[in-house]
Amino acid sequence: MAAANRRHRRSRSAGEKWIEHRAQNPVPLGTVLQPYLKNRKSITKLTDMKDLTGHNANKYMLVSQEADTDGDVETKLFKGNIVPTCGGGAQVIFDDVECLKQKSPVPSPNRKRPINTDNGGILSNIGTTVSALSALTSLNSANDVASRCNVGIEGHTVKRTKV
């Protein structure tokens, strides 16, 4: 970690200059609610360190877009302050995260099928048997995952003595 001047503060009359770091081809959201930065410089690749070390920028925002489990677009905005280091460089101290989710107007189909019951008939008994089997299977899979994680953490299953 680079040493930074914790008491560094820009003049309040200078205003905020943002550096917005985003992907080369962001997914266009097409919504009304967009993040708006009045005084910004948008970059796709941080190749020139003078963008950070120069005296004109004091705020940094990293924009990340990813798809969530439902197939909707989730945009995360990581915001931070640019603080000069004593070696002449700069470091970014992140202090805020905004999560923007865009849901599809058409709901995704439910992947689970409902269990048909006929008030105590054969199908309800099958349902209880299936739930008992699924609980047993999940217990076995939990033990299997625990044993695999144990091997993954240890790195080997048999301990060897040092020669």
From TrEMBL:
Residue stretches making up the Kinesin-like protein Kif23 Arf6-interacting domain: 3-106
Comp. bias intervals (Basic residues): 1-12
Coiled coil: none
Region named Disordered: 1-21
Name of one Pfam family that matches: MKLP1_Arf_bdg
Transmembrane segments: none
Signal peptide: none
Record-linked InterPro entries: Kif23_Arf-bd, Kif23_Arf-bd_sf
Annotated protein name in UniProt: Kinesin-like protein Kif23 Arf6-interacting domain-containing protein
